[in-house]
């Protein structure tokens, strides 16, 4: 019996030993891992990317809006492009827009300071455009040790139109807004809120117009939709295509508790890539090559916080002056002519950096004549409550030409079918102003609705006769002699929007 007990005890001890050995061979249960860990170095919403010391913040928004009287483009409004013809064949009574955006902001500490990358991707679907959505990336830049490379906001910009207006496209300021700008820049922090920037940026050149009289009249005509050079002209070779060209931008900025201020300058080459149309035409003795010219733009901006009136209230304004750099006066509308029909009247104005004509009565000599421009934008935003705000804003732009340029334009364009009729009273000078107001209600901190109403007035260029003879333009019929009367024009557009931010 004792022997049986001993055998049982030995067997039990062996089983326990074997079980313990097998348990030791089994994998141990891992400790709980914090897969999403908040990163407090750069503010709320940043999280560590697993396995790295990189912090990332992901944000996005979804938006829908409807605009009354958008013309042919919600972004540019009823006085730009084909929308200015004011027919339902060219534009809409109402335009809808749906937009969705996603942003990715990463930060990492290095021996050279914070390394940042930023990407903004999204799509926009407009009823004023072809069916479907346009997918794009309008921000893609990196920053380190004061350097910025990629697509970002221009360092010439200051006042933000989109911050106070849904109808931001027709506003006249340098704000590159949603589109951004290609930049290679350096920012020096000078202390006490001062900073200085120098940047090589995607050119905003709008082009030099070739008015050489050896080109045919039909190719010389100013179109009431866009402004083009005659076939075969290389005057604009450095220009609108923007291939391989850049502008030089510099600015000095001050940021304080009371607000901020900035002054800046931009310059680009408006010289011809080759010769005028008459030179290329092989005309005997032509021998004219335009002299080299640089276009420049200057800006001054101011923002003043007004907490004594209302928490969050502020004023912002920007003034821009240019000679040969009209692309800095306004961002969205500069690629098109300003034009507006109303019955049998029409008003118009054109964007160009300079004009040139080397022969005939309207010659500018051997000089490219720079177009002078001026624009101003100002706004005030008042918070009635933390959730309810109203902004009021105003904008003005003016383009003028010197005597040589005016003479060249009016003489070269003095033929049937031309937008301009030469002689006393002919002028390509024009201006436009607008006033508007936007009211926005933040239903929650991430969801808002609002309404923006804008009134615009165009002070048109003029012809000597006071009339224009035009070829057929879209749904507009060709004009008989003196059919369209030149007159100032006005327009109203309104936008209602609902917008939801989805951010940490």
Task: Describe the 3D structure.
There is one protein chain. The protein is mainly β and 504 residues long. It is built from four helices and 24 strands. It has helices at residues 2-25, 217-220, 277-280, 403-412, and strands at residues 47-48, 55-71, 92-110, 113-126, 134-144, 147-152, 181-191, 194-202, 208-210, 246-256, 259-269, 294-305, 314-323, 338-342, 345-349, 354-356, 369-370, 372-385, 388-400, 430-442, 447-459, 467-468, 484-486, 489-502. The strands form three sheets. It has a 16-stranded antiparallel β-barrel with strand order 2-3-4-5-6-7-8-10-11-12-13-18-19-20-21-24. A four-stranded mixed sheet has the order 14-15-23-22, with no helix packed on it. The protein has a three-stranded mixed sheet with strand order 9-16-17, covered by helices on one side. Strand 4 (113-126) and strand 5 form a beta hairpin. The model is unreliable at 7-13, 15-33, 213-243 and 276-287 (pLDDT under 50).
For this entry, give a set of tags:
504 residues, mainly beta, 16-stranded antiparallel β-barrel, four-stranded mixed β-sheet, 4 helices, 8% helix
**Largest sheet entry:** 16 strands, antiparallel, barrel
Structural class: mainly beta
Radius of gyration: 31 Å
Helix content: under 10%
Beta-strand content = 35-45%
Compute the number of helices.
4
* Principal-axis shape: globular
DSSP, total strands: 24
């Amino acid at each position: 019996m004792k022997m049986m007990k001993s055998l049982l005890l030995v067997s039990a001890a062996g089983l326990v030993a074997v079980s313990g050995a097998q348990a030791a061979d089994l994998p141990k249960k891992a400790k709980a891992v914090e897969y999403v860990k908040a990163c407090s170095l750069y503010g709320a919403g940043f999280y560590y990317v697993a396995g790295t010391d990189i912090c990332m913040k992901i944000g996005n928004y979804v938006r829908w809006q409807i605009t009354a009287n958008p013309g042919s483009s919600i972004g540019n409004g009823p006085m730009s492009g084909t929308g200015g013809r004011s027919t339902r064949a060219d534009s809409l009574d109402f335009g809808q827009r749906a937009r969705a955006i996603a942003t990715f902001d990463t930060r990492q500490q290095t021996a050279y300071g914070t390394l940042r990358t930023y990407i903004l991707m999204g799509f926009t679907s407009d009823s004023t455009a072809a069916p479907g959505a346009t997918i794009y990336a309008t921000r893609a830049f990196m920053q380190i040790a004061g350097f910025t490379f990629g697509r970002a906001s221009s360092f010439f910009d200051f006042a933000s139109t989109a911050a106070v207006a849904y109808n931001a496209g027709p506003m006249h300021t340098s704000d590159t807004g949603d589109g951004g700008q290609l930049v290679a820049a350096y920012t020096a922090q000078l202390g006490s809120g001062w900073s200085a920037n120098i940047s090589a940026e995607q050119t905003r050149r709008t082009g030099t117009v070739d008015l050489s009289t050896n080109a045919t009249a039909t190719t010389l005509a100013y179109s009431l939709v866009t402004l083009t050079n005659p076939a075969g002209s290389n005057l604009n070779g450095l220009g609108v295509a923007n291939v391989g060209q850049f502008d030089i931008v510099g600015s000095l900025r001050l940021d304080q508790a009371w607000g901020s201020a900035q002054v800046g300058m931009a310059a680009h080459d408006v010289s011809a890539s080759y010769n005028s149309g008459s030179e290329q035409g092989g005309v005997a003795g032509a021998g004219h090559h335009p002299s080299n010219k640089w276009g420049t733009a200057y800006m001054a901006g101011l923002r003043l916080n007004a907490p004594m009136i209302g928490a969050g209230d502020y004023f912002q304004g920007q003034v821009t002056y240019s000679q040969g750099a009209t692309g800095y006066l306004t961002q969205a509308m500069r690629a098109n002519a300003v034009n507006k029909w109303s019955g049998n009247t029409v008003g118009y104005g054109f964007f160009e950096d300079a004009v040139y004509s080397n022969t005939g009565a309207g010659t500018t000599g051997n000089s490219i004549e720079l177009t002078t421009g001026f624009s101003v934008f100002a706004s005030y935003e008042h918070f009635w409550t933390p959730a309810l705000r109203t902004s009021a804003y105003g904008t003005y732009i003016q383009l003028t030409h010197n005597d040589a340029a005016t003479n060249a334009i009016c003489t070269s364009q003095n033929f049937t079918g031309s937008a301009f009729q030469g002689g006393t009273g002919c002028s390509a000078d024009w201006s436009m102003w607008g006033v508007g107001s936007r009211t926005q209600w933040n239903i929650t901190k991430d969801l808002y609705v609002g309404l923006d109403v804008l009134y615009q007035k165009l002070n048109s260029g003029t012809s000597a006769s006071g009339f224009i003879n035009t070829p057929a333009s879209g749904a507009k019929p060709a004009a008989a002699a003196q059919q369209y009367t030149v007159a100032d024009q006005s327009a109203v557009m309104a936008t209602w929007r609902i917008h939801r931010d989805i951010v940490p």
